[in-house]
């Protein structure tokens, strides 16, 4: 379907916004009146520039405070709107948005409102203009889309229709069952907005927190199906008021925006293809699947093949790993990279000389069924590729850059040769590559206690957080869990997990408060089969644990009624504890090196969380120790 974006979504001047929309690949734009009023160009210039860029000017908006007023005021409204019709003629535009009156309405009478809409439409017809009436969620008398449609129906003018804006509909939780009942050709325009689920007055929620589809909590796929079923065939447009998008770089935001519409169309098509029921809506919408933009292949990673740490002076990282029982498995034949391994957990340490960087997370290798398909999928979503040099004989992996700066590699499964890269590391003399094998429980008495990577916690740049959510959802096919706020000593950290269904890939995304020059900490959590045993060994070998204060253990006793011996054991090993309705969780943290630390976790009986109640204890202890180490 055609795509469009309101200029209010983007930063910069009107020309910059137009250029970015065109460069990202949008078909058209909604001209926000404010952007035009402050622009130095004449309307004719804007019209020509749009033509030059190949953009259509789809909607002029908003014309406020229009209907539901006393006749005297309405006379002035007609004068005002006629001026705008002349302006639209100069711009070469033919569709104007009329939001329901939220400011000057005094007449709560549908007959009066319908007749005023009809009179505006008749005047618009003289200028070849059509009007789309939109129910604002906070409209004084008209605030639900069914009401706006009844008024449009009553006014009964060919050039008068409705504009459906998902924010106004879904924020008020209006039922969307009747969306398909509005004839497709009377829906003049559709604005798609997502938003995080919040309990906030709708006006503030709308003006500051809207996000692109896939970045919030609204069910836009369901809305799309009803829209298609109703016969709408106009553009899918984005109208996102968001404090961050107003300040982020315009080209990057425009790409994020178009990515959301590509993802939404593909997700809608997939949902239709997968639906087994034969409701009228589904079959009508299914008949139109061909109109939706599709993505090649489907990607859901099955596991994390490696986590890469990069920086200078990585000895301390090596020390932590070695105390956690990791083995140094060799150095890369051509790169300044080493591989550490414990069970199926692999950490790559990259000592690439980059200006004085302290160790930090660099990349994640994801195991996917088809790496080429995953790459094509990411490219179709306009995710930037990471340029890489692969020498002859080395295993090439497609690599993409996540919005948070993490490099994402796609690796084929081990069974399909996905572990060929391991042979690029030369092993210390006493280890023979051929002797590398999985432990045999019959004969191995010392099984690895760590089995793999349980989760990787990634710090998110505040203003690009919505973009990250969509990236992990769309490019990696992960599912988004509800977000939680964790109080830390320097601010509130908002945390949201993205994961695959089986839980073999879990990425808690953390948005930290603005800390100025403090590096955001990230961590790799290893899954362990016996965390008490591992902690004992690590303690004996001298691991630098993150110390946990005694108050925490007293609180634990009160909360969970654990026996004294258990509390004593946890406390002596700096272990933390949590429980959910399924099972228990035991974990400990290492001290931080650079902007990175490690965690070891043990999930008992299907515990599903991440020890969130313990995160404030961790952050407070890290804060204390970073102050002490200064
Ligand atoms: O917040 C507003 O005023 C506003 C204006 C125009 C719209 O289309 C809209 O959805 C909201
Ligand atoms: Mg709108």
Automatic annotation (TrEMBL):
UniProt keywords, alphabetically = Carbohydrate metabolism, Lyase, Metal-binding
Its EC number(s): 4.2.1.118
Metabolic or biological pathway, per its Swiss-Prot or TrEMBL entry: Aromatic compound metabolism; 3,4-dihydroxybenzoate biosynthesis
Reactions this protein catalyses? 3-dehydroshikimate = 3,4-dihydroxybenzoate + H2O
GO biological process terms, semicolon-separated: 3,4-dihydroxybenzoate biosynthetic process
Q: Please give the InterPro entries that the UniProt record associates with this protein.
A: DSD, Glyas_Bleomycin-R_OHBP_Dase, Glyas_Fos-R_dOase_dom, IolE/XylAMocC-like, VOC_core, Xyl_isomerase-like_sf, Xyl_isomerase-like_TIM-brl
What are its cofactors? Answer: a divalent metal cation
A GO molecular function assigned to this protein is:
3-dehydroshikimate dehydratase activity
Taken from the record, one Pfam family name reads AP_endonuc_2
Q: Where does Mg(2+) bind?
A: 455, 523, 599
Task: Give the VOC domain ranges.
Answer: 452-591
Give binding positions for a divalent metal cation: 134, 165, 191, 239
Family membership, please give it. Answer: Belongs to the bacterial two-domain DSD family.
Q: What does this protein do?
A: Catalyzes the conversion of 3-dehydroshikimate to protocatechuate (3,4-dihydroxybenzoate), a common intermediate of quinate and shikimate degradation pathways.
**Protein name as annotated:** 3-dehydroshikimate dehydratase
State the taxonomy lineage: Bacteria, Bacillati, Actinomycetota, Actinomycetes, Micrococcales
């Amino acid at each position: 379907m055609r795509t469009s974006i309101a200029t209010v979504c983007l930063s910069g001047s009107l020309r910059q916004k137009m250029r970015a929309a065109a460069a990202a690949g949008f078909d058209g734009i909604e001209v926000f009146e404010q952007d035009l009023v402050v622009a130095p160009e004449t309307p004719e210039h804007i019209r020509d520039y749009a033509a030059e860029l190949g953009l259509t000017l789809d909607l002029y908006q908003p014309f406020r405070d229009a209907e539901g007023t006393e006749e005297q005021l309405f006379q002035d409204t007609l004068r005002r709107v006629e001026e705008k019709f002349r302006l639209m003629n100069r711009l070469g535009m033919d569709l104007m948005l009329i939001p329901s009156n939220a400011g000057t309405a005094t007449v709560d009478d549908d007959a009066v409102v319908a007749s005023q809409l009809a009179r505006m439409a008749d005047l618009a017809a003289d200028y070849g203009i059509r009007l789309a009436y939109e129910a604002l969620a906070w409209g004084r008398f008209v605030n639900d889309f069914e009401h706006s449609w009844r008024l449009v129906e009553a006014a009964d003018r060919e050039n008068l229709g409705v504009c459906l804006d998902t924010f106004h509909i879904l924020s008020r939780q209006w039922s969307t069952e009747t969306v398909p009942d509005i004839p497709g050709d009377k829906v003049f325009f559709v604005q798609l907005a997502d938003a995080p689920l919040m309990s906030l007055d709708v006006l503030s929620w709308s003006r500051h927190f809207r996000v692109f589809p896939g970045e919030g909590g609204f069910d836009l796929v369901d809305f799309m199906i009803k829209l298609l079923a109703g016969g709408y065939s106009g553009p899918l447009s984005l109208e996102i008021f968001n404090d961050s998008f107003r300040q982020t770089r315009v080209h990057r935001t425009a790409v994020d925006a178009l990515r959301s519409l590509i993802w939404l169309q593909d997700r809608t098509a997939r949902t239709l293809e997968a639906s087994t029921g034969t409701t009228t809506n589904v079959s009508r919408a299914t008949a139109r699947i061909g109109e939706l933009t599709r993505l090649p292949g489907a990607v859901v990673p099955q596991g994390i093949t490696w986590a890469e740490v990069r920086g200078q002076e990585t000895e301390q990282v090596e020390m932590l790993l070695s105390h956690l029982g990791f083995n140094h498995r060799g150095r890369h034949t051509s790169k300044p990279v080493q591989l550490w391994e414990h069970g199926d957990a692999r950490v790559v340490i990259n000592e690439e000389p980059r200006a004085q960087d302290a160790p930090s997370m660099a990349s994640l290798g994801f195991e996917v069924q088809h790496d080429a398909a995953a790459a094509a999928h990411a490219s179709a979503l306009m995710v930037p590729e990471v340029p890489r040099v692969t020498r002859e004989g080395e295993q090439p992996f497609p690599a993409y850059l996540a919005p948070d700066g993490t490099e994402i590699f796609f690796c084929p499964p081990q069974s399909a040769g996905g572990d060929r890269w391991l042979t690029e590391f030369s092993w210390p003399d006493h280890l023979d590559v051929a002797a590398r094998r999985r432990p045999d429980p019959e004969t191995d008495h010392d099984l690895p206690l760590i089995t793999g990577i349980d989760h990787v916690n990634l710090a998110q740049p505040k203003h690009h957080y919505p973009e990250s959510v969509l990236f992990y959802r769309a490019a990696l096919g992960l599912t988004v869990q509800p977000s939680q706020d964790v109080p830390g000593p320097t601010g509130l950290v908002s945390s949201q997990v993205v994961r695959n269904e089986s839980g073999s890939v879990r990425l808690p995304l953390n948005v930290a408060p603005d800390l100025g020059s403090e590096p955001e900490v990230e961590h790799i959590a290893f899954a362990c089969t016996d965390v008490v045993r591992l902690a004992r060994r690590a303690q004996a070998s001298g691991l630098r644990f993150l110390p946990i204060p005694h108050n925490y253990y007293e609180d634990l006793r009160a909360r969970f009624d654990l026996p004294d011996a258990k509390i004593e054991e946890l406390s002596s090993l700096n272990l933390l504890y949590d429980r959910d309705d399924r099972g228990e969780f035991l974990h400990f943290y290492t001290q931080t090196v650079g902007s990175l630390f490690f965690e070891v976790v043990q999930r008992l009986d299907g515990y599903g969380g991440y020890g969130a109640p313990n995160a404030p204890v961790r952050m407070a202890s890290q804060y204390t120790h970073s102050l002490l180490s200064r």
